[in-house]
Fold this sequence. Notes:
Helix 2 runs antiparallel to helix 5 (143-157) and helix 4 crosses helix 5. By secondary structure, the chain is of the alpha+beta class. It folds into two domains: 5-80, Beta-grasp domain (Ubiquitin-like (UB roll)), CATH 3.10.20; 89-157, [2Fe-2S]-binding domain (DNA polymerase, domain 1, Orthogonal Bundle). It is built from five helices and five strands.
Amino acid sequence: MIDEQVISLTVNGKVHNAHAEPRMSLADFLRERLGLTGTHLGCEHGVCGSCTVIYEGKAVRSCLMFAVQAGGAEIETIEGLADGKNLHPLQILFSEQRALQCGFCTPGMLMAAIDLVHNNPTISSEDIRLGMSAVLCRCTGYEGIINAVEIYANQVWRK
Length: 159
Protein backbone atom coordinates (compact mmCIF):
# COMPACT_ATOMS: atom_id res chain seq x y z
CA MET A 1 0.00 0.00 0.00
CA ILE A 2 1.25 3.46 -0.91
CA ASP A 3 1.29 6.07 1.84
CA GLU A 4 -1.04 8.96 1.20
CA GLN A 5 -0.07 12.53 1.94
CA VAL A 6 -2.26 15.36 3.12
CA ILE A 7 -2.30 18.16 0.58
CA SER A 8 -3.45 21.67 1.35
CA LEU A 9 -4.30 23.92 -1.58
CA THR A 10 -6.66 26.73 -2.46
CA VAL A 11 -9.18 25.88 -5.15
CA ASN A 12 -11.58 28.53 -6.40
CA GLY A 13 -10.76 30.69 -3.37
CA LYS A 14 -11.41 27.97 -0.79
CA VAL A 15 -8.71 26.12 1.18
CA HIS A 16 -8.93 22.34 0.93
CA ASN A 17 -7.05 19.65 2.83
CA ALA A 18 -7.30 16.13 1.45
CA HIS A 19 -5.31 12.91 1.13
CA ALA A 20 -3.60 11.84 -2.09
CA GLU A 21 -1.22 9.12 -3.14
CA PRO A 22 2.07 10.50 -4.44
CA ARG A 23 1.25 9.37 -7.98
CA MET A 24 -2.31 10.81 -8.10
CA SER A 25 -2.74 13.41 -10.82
CA LEU A 26 -4.08 16.83 -9.98
CA ALA A 27 -7.03 16.11 -12.28
CA ASP A 28 -7.93 12.96 -10.36
CA PHE A 29 -7.43 14.77 -7.04
CA LEU A 30 -9.81 17.57 -8.08
CA ARG A 31 -12.42 15.09 -9.31
CA GLU A 32 -12.13 12.28 -6.75
CA ARG A 33 -11.01 13.99 -3.55
CA LEU A 34 -12.67 17.41 -3.93
CA GLY A 35 -15.70 16.41 -6.02
CA LEU A 36 -14.94 19.03 -8.67
CA THR A 37 -15.90 17.00 -11.72
CA GLY A 38 -15.95 19.89 -14.19
CA THR A 39 -12.30 19.23 -14.98
CA HIS A 40 -12.57 16.56 -17.66
CA LEU A 41 -10.08 13.84 -18.44
CA GLY A 42 -9.72 13.07 -22.13
CA CYS A 43 -6.42 11.62 -23.30
CA GLU A 44 -4.61 11.69 -19.93
CA HIS A 45 -1.38 12.40 -21.86
CA GLY A 46 -1.50 16.20 -21.96
CA VAL A 47 -2.50 16.34 -25.61
CA CYS A 48 -6.23 17.19 -25.69
CA GLY A 49 -6.36 19.99 -23.10
CA SER A 50 -9.73 18.97 -21.63
CA CYS A 51 -8.20 18.93 -18.15
CA THR A 52 -6.87 22.50 -18.30
CA VAL A 53 -7.05 24.45 -15.03
CA ILE A 54 -5.45 27.70 -13.89
CA TYR A 55 -2.51 26.95 -11.58
CA GLU A 56 -0.87 29.98 -9.96
CA GLY A 57 -2.26 32.20 -12.71
CA LYS A 58 -1.28 30.06 -15.70
CA ALA A 59 -3.10 27.35 -17.63
CA VAL A 60 -1.78 23.83 -17.01
CA ARG A 61 -2.77 20.34 -18.00
CA SER A 62 -3.93 18.88 -14.69
CA CYS A 63 -3.50 15.32 -15.96
CA LEU A 64 0.27 15.90 -16.21
CA MET A 65 0.76 17.30 -12.73
CA PHE A 66 0.83 15.30 -9.55
CA ALA A 67 -1.51 16.53 -6.84
CA VAL A 68 1.37 16.60 -4.35
CA GLN A 69 3.15 19.11 -6.61
CA ALA A 70 0.20 21.48 -6.17
CA GLY A 71 0.45 21.63 -2.40
CA GLY A 72 0.12 25.24 -1.25
CA ALA A 73 -0.89 26.45 -4.71
CA GLU A 74 -3.87 28.49 -5.86
CA ILE A 75 -5.95 26.75 -8.51
CA GLU A 76 -9.01 27.83 -10.42
CA THR A 77 -11.27 25.27 -12.04
CA ILE A 78 -14.33 25.65 -14.22
CA GLU A 79 -16.48 25.51 -11.09
CA GLY A 80 -14.90 28.77 -9.92
CA LEU A 81 -15.58 30.69 -13.11
CA ALA A 82 -19.23 31.52 -12.50
CA ASP A 83 -20.23 33.82 -9.65
CA GLY A 84 -22.95 31.85 -7.93
CA LYS A 85 -25.80 31.60 -10.41
CA ASN A 86 -24.28 34.28 -12.67
CA LEU A 87 -22.22 32.90 -15.51
CA HIS A 88 -18.83 34.38 -16.28
CA PRO A 89 -18.92 36.71 -19.32
CA LEU A 90 -16.87 34.22 -21.34
CA GLN A 91 -19.35 31.43 -20.54
CA ILE A 92 -22.16 33.65 -21.81
CA LEU A 93 -20.20 34.41 -24.98
CA PHE A 94 -19.57 30.70 -25.58
CA SER A 95 -23.33 30.18 -25.52
CA GLU A 96 -24.13 33.22 -27.66
CA GLN A 97 -21.46 32.36 -30.25
CA ARG A 98 -22.46 28.70 -30.38
CA ALA A 99 -19.05 27.61 -29.17
CA LEU A 100 -20.53 24.55 -27.47
CA GLN A 101 -21.58 21.21 -28.83
CA CYS A 102 -21.11 18.11 -26.71
CA GLY A 103 -19.41 20.19 -24.00
CA PHE A 104 -16.63 17.76 -23.17
CA CYS A 105 -13.80 20.12 -24.10
CA THR A 106 -15.62 23.26 -22.95
CA PRO A 107 -14.18 23.47 -19.41
CA GLY A 108 -10.65 23.17 -20.78
CA MET A 109 -11.44 25.65 -23.56
CA LEU A 110 -12.79 28.20 -21.10
CA MET A 111 -9.86 27.90 -18.73
CA ALA A 112 -7.33 28.08 -21.57
CA ALA A 113 -9.11 31.16 -22.93
CA ILE A 114 -9.10 32.86 -19.51
CA ASP A 115 -5.33 32.35 -19.27
CA LEU A 116 -4.76 33.42 -22.87
CA VAL A 117 -6.75 36.65 -22.60
CA HIS A 118 -5.82 37.69 -19.07
CA ASN A 119 -2.09 37.17 -19.60
CA ASN A 120 -1.89 38.90 -23.01
CA PRO A 121 -3.06 42.52 -23.05
CA THR A 122 -1.99 42.97 -26.67
CA ILE A 123 -3.51 39.73 -27.92
CA SER A 124 -4.21 39.49 -31.64
CA SER A 125 -6.68 37.35 -33.58
CA GLU A 126 -3.79 35.14 -34.67
CA ASP A 127 -2.65 34.75 -31.04
CA ILE A 128 -6.17 33.61 -30.14
CA ARG A 129 -6.32 31.12 -33.02
CA LEU A 130 -2.94 29.68 -32.09
CA GLY A 131 -3.63 29.66 -28.34
CA MET A 132 -7.03 28.02 -28.61
CA SER A 133 -5.65 25.28 -30.86
CA ALA A 134 -4.04 23.89 -27.70
CA VAL A 135 -7.39 22.39 -26.65
CA LEU A 136 -8.87 19.86 -29.03
CA CYS A 137 -12.52 19.92 -30.01
CA ARG A 138 -14.13 17.39 -32.31
CA CYS A 139 -17.55 19.07 -32.57
CA THR A 140 -17.56 22.83 -33.05
CA GLY A 141 -15.15 23.64 -35.84
CA TYR A 142 -13.56 26.32 -33.59
CA GLU A 143 -15.13 29.38 -35.28
CA GLY A 144 -17.62 29.99 -32.48
CA ILE A 145 -14.87 29.47 -29.92
CA ILE A 146 -12.53 31.91 -31.65
CA ASN A 147 -15.34 34.48 -32.00
CA ALA A 148 -16.25 34.21 -28.31
CA VAL A 149 -12.64 34.59 -27.18
CA GLU A 150 -12.04 37.57 -29.50
CA ILE A 151 -15.14 39.35 -28.20
CA TYR A 152 -14.08 38.61 -24.62
CA ALA A 153 -10.54 39.90 -25.26
CA ASN A 154 -12.03 43.11 -26.62
CA GLN A 155 -14.23 43.44 -23.53
CA VAL A 156 -11.26 42.91 -21.18
CA TRP A 157 -8.58 44.98 -22.89
CA ARG A 158 -10.36 47.51 -25.06
CA LYS A 159 -12.98 48.91 -22.72
